[in-house]
Design goal:
This protein has 13 helices and no strands. It is mostly helical.
Length: 273
């Protein structure tokens, strides 16, 4: 086992553009959403919504997580088997993508570089059949992230505006500004990412709706925050590009892109004063 981890760490020097794998669900921490509620505005940083091009945002379904609704855990739709090109790669060929994803998700979630031991451990999880969503949830549910959520720091006005803007448009939820201000960056990031992942599971029952949701969201953040993204894929402002991309990769890749973008964008907004 030690030898395997050493080998994995040696291979962590490889670099690539990030993306994802299979499906499994971890339990989320607490009912953070119960702390929030009320009316919102459809503005972000004082700007009205911008036109998204040719792709229209789908009707946002209501997310009902309960024992009766088993659709979330029935991974039989076509979206769970897409990404043929990536899936045919060997373990070694996938490794550089996995390492790149892990570096990005740790940095975006914790706003700090990943430690070698965490990188090796998470890489081992992915190569033993785990998935990116599971790795992400393990990061935000661990003691380190829990301590970050305890920091007594107010979110910036820009971040509060985003948390008012994003849920009504993309999640069909509304949160009160007064309640948003009681939470810090770390709690707000986890909340929006978790709610987005839950919605993506529902949208997966109608893949075209999921592709359109992803396309509109990705094009909007690329257009509004051009300096924030480094890869050509994330910088692309055409919704049709993101729509087509989402149809060619594994579902886990779509999920991890959404999570990385949410965390990275919210980190940036919280730094604005």
């Amino acid at each position: 086992m030690k030898k395997n981890l050493i080998v994995l760490l040696g291979l962590c020097a490889l670099n690539a553009n990030a993306f994802n794998l299979d499906d499994f669900k971890d339990k989320i921490r607490g009912p953070m959403a119960k702390m929030l509620g009320g009316e919102t505005t459809n503005k972000i940083l004082g700007k009205e919504e911008v036109a998204q091009g040719k792709i229209q945002l789908p009707k946002i379904p209501k997310v009902e997580l309960n024992a009766i609704n088993e659709k979330f855990y029935d991974k039989k739709g076509k979206i769970y088997s897409q990404g043929e090109k990536y899936n045919k790669l060997s373990t070694e060929e996938k490794r550089s993508f996995r390492v790149s994803f892990l570096r990005q998700i740790y940095t975006a979630a914790r706003n700090s570089e990943v430690r070698d031991e965490d990188l090796a451990k998470s890489l081992n999880v992915l190569e033993q059949g785990g998935n990116r969503e599971g790795v992400y949830r393990s990061i935000t549910l661990d003691p380190t992230y829990a301590r970050l959520e305890q920091y007594n720091e107010k979110p910036s006005d820009a971040l509060v505006n985003f948390v008012e803007y994003f849920p009504p448009k993309y999640l069909k939820k509304k949160y009160k500004k007064e309640s948003i201000k009681k939470l810090n960056l770390w709690s707000l990031k986890r909340l929006l990412a978790e709610k987005s992942l839950e919605l993506l599971d529902v949208l997966a029952n109608k893949p075209d709706d999921l592709y359109r949701w992803y396309a509109v969201f990705s094009a909007e953040v690329a257009k509004d925050y051009p300096s924030l993204w480094q890869s050509k894929t994330r910088k692309n402002t055409f919704d049709e590009f993101h729509y087509k991309w989402a149809q060619t990769v594994p579902f886990q890749h779509i999920k991890s892109e959404v999570v990385i973008k949410i965390h990275k964008l919210m980190n940036h907004l919280n730094s604005l004063n």
